Amino acid sequence: MNGALLALPDFARSSFDKEREMKLNKGCFPASPVRRSTCVLSSLMLTITTALPLMADDTTNTEIMVVVSNRVPKAISDIPGTVWYIDADDIELATQGGSHLSEILAANIPSLDISTGARTNYGQNVRGRKMLVMIDGISLQSSRPISRQLDAINPFNIERIEVLSGASAIYGAGASGGVINIITKKANQEETEFETLVGATSGFNNSEDGDIQIAQSIAGGNETIQARAAVVYQQTQAFYDANGEIVTPDISQGSLQYNDTLDVLTTASITLSDSQTINLLGQYYDSQQDSPYGLYIVGRDFIDVRKGFESDRQHGTERIMLSAAYNDHAFIGGHQLLAEVSYRREDQTFTPYYQGASQQTTDVINAKALLSKSVGKLNLVYGLDAYRDKLDSNQALFDPTTANNSGNLINQTYAQVGRYPGVEVSSLAGFIQADYAITDRWSIDGGFRYQTMNNAIDDFVAYSIQKKIAAGQGSSADAVPGGETSYNISLFNIGTLYELSDTSQVWVNYSQGFELADPAKYYGQGTYDSAPGANGHWNLINSINVGSSRMEGIKTSSVEIGFRTELDDLSLQSAAYYSESDNSIKYNRSTLLIEKLDDEQRIYGLEGLASYWFTPSLNVGLAGHYVVSEVETDEGWEKISAGQASTSKATAWLGWQGQNLTAKLQSQSMFSYTDDADNKLDGYTVVDLMGSYQLPVGHLGFGIQNLLDNDYTTVWGQRAQILYARHYAADAYDYRGRGRNYTLTYHVTY
After folding, report:
1. Residues 173, 175, 181, CA angle at the centre, nearest 5°?
2. Which helix (H) or strand (E) holds 467?
3. 448, 557, 564, 676: least CB-packed within 10 angstroms?
4. How far apart are alpha carbons 486 and 318 in whole angstroms?
5. Cβ 656 vs Cβ 663: under 8 Å
6. Is residue 380 within 8 Å of 74, Cβ to Cβ?
7. Would you state the pLDDT for residue 705?
8. Tell me, what DSSP letter sits at residue 123?
9. How far is the first Cα of the chain from the last one, in angstroms, to the nearest whole number?
10. Cα-trace Rg, the chain
């Protein structure tokens, strides 16, 4: 039911098999969706106040294998760190209840911030820091972090999700808060199998209040080749708050109102021999907004939301992703070899903002090779990975007369200029990870990663000057010089785990992570003369140059102590952690560009989850994350701005697993937060009901989101008012949560 579990050993079993098994075995980790809510993570200092829901199998967690911790399968009980797991049944139940991917993750991962409810996952962190999101081990990280990694795949195509909390040395850049690895569905038998899902969501406010989803897959093959192909189409219309008013469209990071999404995913496995396989993946993902509603803005004042919005650009993401992986379990010298190459291209657009809208394209080529081997009590994993990430961008400028006369509802392009300098980031890294069993119960785990990165920045005329030239103010300008800069990063991790019993473990772990701030928002900035010269040329006075103003990286060091156990019908896991980074990012509130990187930042807290089965059918659980985020200033340690800081949260649920009916009542609460500048995030609680009923053929899914019809502003809506209120009045960013709405789905596998 609730998916924060450790992991399941047999992912191919059907839900019917699991239900039958549950009736025969009443264990601490039952197989049903509700009962699979199991605890993970419990710090020795925390068994009292925090706890979070998880799911697991009748088998103990020693049989639960994940790859997110060190890139090869490893039992969670052998990992000296915090790992969470969400399996297919939990994903299916939440999807049938109307939840999106970001909401599923937030409900099941204790240290992941509450969902933004929007297209963006900006500010949705793990343990207060940025997370690395992957699909089948392929990173969705880019040099320009546009925060749409959770608008990347439809849950219909997800088999399971593995999450590692905390900094990770083995993955390098981008994993300072944690790692989320989304595992796609694969064909798992030779017989042809079809899967169909249809669903609809509505709050019944009017004819424009209705979303639909249609999904179809086919899977099968033979002894040599097995493949699965799926197509998912999802369409949304207007969102309405608890007062029946249309939710203000998000002009900053993007909403999902009036959005069409197409997810086409194909996976295949080719068996070359008893030890050799090739795995292929191809995805086309297209998520585009075409809204008739816009913000009626006069000057700086937001008047209301009106129909009649027309724009040459709106929010959208189009992505092509391809990968091929070769796996040999009997490679030279008793090694296992994994070699993979992947390609990803993303085209991301934004909606009008200050009479302009950007388009940003990213091309990423990634290659990696990994070897693993066991020598007695020593297990080794080592290898190389490399990538090249290239960014190009432009800005459509909209006719100001037309925009002003329409209250910024009509946006027609009259010119196109550069938005950010071209950026090419290349990286080569070597890593080694080892674990050693000191005794039957005590093990040690450690690793090292050395990564070299190179940033190549194009010459670039500052965006503000390009706008003036497009408007007829001058004809040419000096370019801010580009150039190259490099980074050499060493990252360590070491941890130890002790088994207190066959079902209980305690661990201590230290790990480092690295993050490179957005180079496109740092370079390409310059100061020019107040007016062009007589020849119409803008002269550059000074600028941020690559050579003399090198952007620093951000290294994070993190330590945690944790505990997990399974005691009959009670499961719990929790951890206490402390992380500190040597730099933090400061943005210019007017230009939204990076001003500088300095000031140490520290984040510490507690996360945990507990689940208890009163009967073989009735389960209750609690989950929580307490987090403190601070930055060091000349006056000492101060709270991080509410525009960026993570907030504490809690989750509680009551689950039922009957012969035909599965149901779950769940609440998620975000706690209030006030920074030292009196910026405030108001906490709120949302209660959801979701369930599934077994029909003679297929399942009937149902859900009521925001069951109590709570009227609130989303966490992103509150952050946006802090971050962007210098541009327009704050109420232009007051993004309300959806009011009570109902979802009904039909899902069948045949």
Report:
1. 120
2. helix 463-470
3. 676
4. 30
5. yes
6. no
7. 96
8. T
9. 23
10. 26
Q: Which residue has the tokens 């690559």?
A: 546
Pairwise CA distance, residues 539 & 463, whole Å: 14
**pLDDT-flagged residues of the chain (< 70):** 1-63, 589, 596
Whole-angstrom Cα distance, residue 162 to residue 87?
9
3-state DSSP percent of the chain in helix, strand and coil, to 5: 10, 50, 40
Instruction: Return the ∠ at Cα 503 (arms to 499 and 506), rounded to 5°.
Output: 40
User: ∠ CA 277-282-283 to the nearest 5 degrees?
Assistant: 145
Residue 707 CB neighbours (<10 A): 16
Q: What letter does residue 712 receive in the DSSP assignment? A: -
Residue 9 lies in a domain: no
Which one-letter amino acid corresponds to residue 456?
A
What's the distance, CA 350 to chain centroid?
19
Instruction: Give whole-number Cα distances, 649 to 356, 673, 675, in Å.
Output: 37, 11, 17
Averaged pLDDT of the chain:
88
Q: What would the pLDDT profile of 129-168 be if each residue is shown by its tens digit? A: 989 999 999 999 888 888 899 999 999 999 999 999 988 8
Instruction: Give a yes or no: residue 8 inside a domain.
Output: no
Instruction: Encode burial over 592-611: b for 16+ CB neighbours within 10 A, e otherwise.
Output: ebbebbebebbbbbbbbbbb
**Any domain includes 2:** no
Cα–Cα distance between 180 and 161 in angstroms, integer? 7
pLDDT in tens, 368-416: 999 999 999 999 999 999 999 999 999 999 999 999 999 999 999 999 9
Domain of 479, in residue numbers: 15-749
CATH assignment at residue 113: 2.40.170.20
Q: Based on the structure, what is the number of domains in the chain?
A: 1
Q: Are residues 46 and 75 in contact, defined by beta-carbon separation less than 8 angstroms?
A: no
Cα(537)–Cα(132) distance, integer angstroms: 44
Which tens digits make up the pLDDT trace of 216-245? 999 999 999 999 999 999 999 999 999 999
pTM value > 0.85 = yes
* Per-residue pLDDT at 63: 62
Residue 248, in any domain of the structure: yes
